[in-house]
Specification:
A hairpin with a 5-residue loop joins strand 21 (525-540) and strand 22 (546-550). This protein has 19 helices and 25 strands. With 628 residues, the protein is of the alpha+beta class. The strands form six sheets. Strands 18, 19, 20, 21, 22, 23, 24 and 25 form an eight-stranded mixed sheet that branches.
């Protein structure tokens, strides 16, 4: 499978994963994402900070001060009637009572409250009773309204009160964190649909007709930005009492400010510690339910609610599919720190865009997109790291293998330029040949394993000497080797390094032979030839290529080994090499010559010099110095 096919398969699987995560969460599964979304929503709300709400609503709180005055909670109906009557006298737009008036109390109190409710525009709270602690959505054939929370029944105010007011369901929808993130606008039982309390209040306050369309709600000619299940997403302005709040005690004290009531929406609700509903919000660990409801009312009337409608859901689905694909694509595009940095930059940009949208009134989901992106990216990155490790091991092994055949300089050059010497190159270079004498005869009389060890040690000595001098071994020729100086490019000191390599080989092989058992060492000798001149360097072979050099210079260097043996020496150097090396002798060696030698396979003569250590007397080889 090619890398391109692997990447396409990874992108396809990533897209399927993202689509599956989004569909599963949208279908009511993967509920753990709701808790994550609630946490991320709290964080984004805090990043946005406290906002000043539109000054439309006043909360009249039945708080601890009121309870201490009266000595009991719930507030007696006669006292509640006094509160409502005082508020009505200050001409509010609408009075919304966020209290469940479902039980009978003292007859006089109930009658007084009923008469008071008839004096002004009123909305009373009802409650939806569900079969379990959580509001569920069940599939049905009722069309668009099938997505509404289905209650067993509605707990309505007493008829004496409901006859003088409109009624709305006051339930809010809380996530797994307990924080209300939305307020359903519509509720249903098996036979009826009821409006929510905030929607009833907003409709009455705006005095505009409400239209329930299959995919949206309309207040007059303005669309209500509800979610796909007709719920109103809410975002809090700040901590408790951010929305204007007055204590009901100010009514009993006669200190209520008319400006806090006149031509405003007034919501009467409980804020008593230990009584009434309290919810955690991003700004407050305990916010009274009446303020949550008032937040929803403000959103509806002012039209400043956060948008999480069908178009936003489509954007969420697109993000859940495309963002993971983009991240995986970036990691596949650059399997390096650059790819990781690019993917990180995209994630930061997405997080910034998501937060920016939230703080400007568009609620793009964060949890679902993260769940769609993180697992495939982590898996792909892990596979990439594993494959990269395997590739590194492979390349390291390959490099080690290459190091056995090529000098370090040539390895580096091939790494930079894989086409190095694909076309033959003509240039000056120094060539050194070395060969063991007597090795063929010895191998006929010696155990093969011992011969292998001898040859291995000989090759190791040549390899170290050649590398130390910067030479390239173009090949081991059985019991000999060819070393080239001038690759990967010609250098001014090629001849000098070749000369040093020849002398170091002379001394090193001599010491090595002396260290061998006499039964072996007495049968071995060696010969070295070195020359400088023009060569043709190239790569030979198709599947298995090797670097080599050809030309007259190579032929002369090889034949100089014969000249050395014929003249009782071990190292023969051409006059051309010595001139190119600018050699003027050495205190620890003796250079004898010159000799005009005829080289086999070449017309003309070559000026040859012979080198030996100063402390070693010149002698004709007494050992088996024969040409193998």
């Amino acid at each position: 499978m090619t890398r391109r096919v692997q990447i396409l398969a990874a992108l396809a699987l990533t897209a399927l994963w993202g689509a599956g995560i989004y569909a599963a969460h949208a279908g009511g599964h993967l509920r753990f994402l709701d808790r994550l979304e609630a946490t991320l929503t709290d964080w984004r709300t805090q990043v946005r900070g406290v906002q000043r709400p539109p000054d439309l609503v006043t909360i009249v709180a039945i708080d601890d001060t009121v309870v201490k005055r009266g000595g009991s909670y719930p507030l007696p109906r006669a006292d509640l009637a006094r509160v409502v009557d005082t508020i009505v006298q200050f001409k509010p737009k609408v009075v919304a009572i966020d209290l469940l008036l479902v039980d009978r109390s003292a007859a006089i109190g109930d009658a007084t409250l009923a008469n008071t409710l008839a004096t002004g525009p009123m909305v009373l709270a009802a409650a939806a009773i569900f079969p379990s602690a959580s509001e569920t959505v069940e599939a049905s054939s009722q069309g668009p309204l099938a997505v509404l929370p289905q209650a067993e029944r509605f707990l309505l105010p007493l008829p004496a009160f409901a006859d003088h007011a409109e009624v709305g369901v006051v339930n809010v929808a809380t996530g797994q964190s307990g924080s209300p993130l939305s307020v359903p606008m519509l509720f249903r039982t098996h036979d009826k649909v009821e409006l929510s309390f905030p929607l009833r209040v907003a409709t009455r306050a705006l005095d505009k007709p409400l239209t329930i369309a299959p995919d949206r709600l309309m207040l007059g000619d303005r669309a209500v930005p509800t979610d796909t299940d007709f719920s109103l997403p809410i975002t809090y302005y700040g901590p408790r009492r951010t929305i204007r709040t007055v204590s009901a005690q100010s009514i009993f004290d006669g200190t209520l400010d008319r400006a806090a009531i006149e031509n405003r929406i007034v919501v009467i609700g409980a804020a008593v510690a230990g009584g009434g509903d309290f919810y955690p919000t991003p700004f407050d660990s305990l916010m009274p339910g009446v303020e949550v409801v008032s937040t929803a009312i403000t959103h509806l009337v002012a039209g400043d609610g956060i948008v999480r409608d069908r178009r936003v859901r489509i954007a969420d689905a697109v993000a859940a599919i495309l963002l993971p694909m983009l991240l995986v694509g970036l990691l596949a595009w650059r399997r390096s720190a650059l790819g990781i940095m690019a993917a990180a930059a995209v994630m930061i940009a997405w997080a910034g865009l998501n937060t920016f949208a939230f703080t400007h009134g568009v609620w793009l989901t964060a949890a679902t997109t993260l769940a769609a992106a993180v697992p495939p990216v982590a898996i792909f990155a892990g596979v990439q790291l594993w494959a990269g490790g395997r590739r590194t091991q492979y390349l390291t092994a390959k490099s080690r293998s290459l190091a056995r055949f090529q000098a370090p300089a040539v390895q580096e050059w091939l790494a930079r330029d894989p086409d190095f010497l694909s076309n033959p190159v003509r240039q000056n270079a120094a060539v050194v040949f070395i060969d063991l004498s007597g090795f063929t005869a010895l191998s006929e009389r010696t155990d093969p394993d011992s011969i292998q060890e001898i040859l291995k040690a000989f090759h190791a000595l040549i390899d170290k000497t050649a590398v130390d001098c910067g030479g390239t071994i173009t090949g081991f020729l059985g019991d000999g080797a060819m070393i080239l100086f001038g690759l990967p490019r010609a250098m001014p000191d090629d001849a000098a390094r070749a000369l040093k390599c020849s002398i170091d080989l002379h001394r090193g092989v001599e010491r090595w032979i002396a260290s061998l058992p006499s039964a072996i060492g007495d049968r071995l000798g060696f010969k070295i030839g070195a020359h400088f001149g023009e060569i043709v360097a190239s790569r030979l072979g198709e599947t298995h290529q090797h670097i080599t050099a050809t030309g007259d210079t190579v032929n002369v260097a090889s034949r100089l080994m014969e000249v050395a043996v014929q003249n009782g020496a071990r190292l023969a150097l051409s006059d051309t090499l010595l001139d190119a090396a600018d050699f003027h002798g050495a205190p620890d060696g003796v250079l004898s010559g010159p000799l005009l030698a005829q080289v086999r396979g070449r017309s003309g003569v070559v000026t040859v010099w012979f080198w030996r250590d100063q402390d070693r007397p010149r002698r004709v080889a007494a050992k088996a110095e024969v040409i193998d």
